[in-house]
Amino acid sequence: MVRRNQQTDCQLRGDASECIVPAGAPDWITPELIEATIRVWQPYYAEVLSPEEAVTMILDVGRLFDALSSG
Question: pLDDT tens-digit profile of 59-70?
């Protein structure tokens, strides 16, 4: 995962509508979900997380859930 140490469109500003959903993301991924994902995971990363990275995290957690629940 490539990270960049700069401000992003989804930086925590208190207004999720300012967060841009990356092109190609599923329709169910909302700006609010991206903002919440970044808010939860950012404390664990030294670099600023991007909306693209948040989408990757969301999709990967969904795949993990599918794998664990199919058992």
Answer: 999 999 999 998
Token pair of 25, please?
């993301």
d(CA 55, CA 53): 5
The owner of tokens 């500003």 is 13
- pTM as predicted: 0.70
What letter represents residue 62's amino acid? G
Domain positions in the chain are 27-40+49-60
pLDDT digits (tens, 9 = 90+) for 21-57: 999 999 999 999 999 999 999 999 999 999 999 999 9
Q: Give the separation between CA 56 and CA 25, rounded to whole angstroms.
A: 9
Helix axes of 31-41 and 51-69: crossing angle, nearest 10 degrees: 90
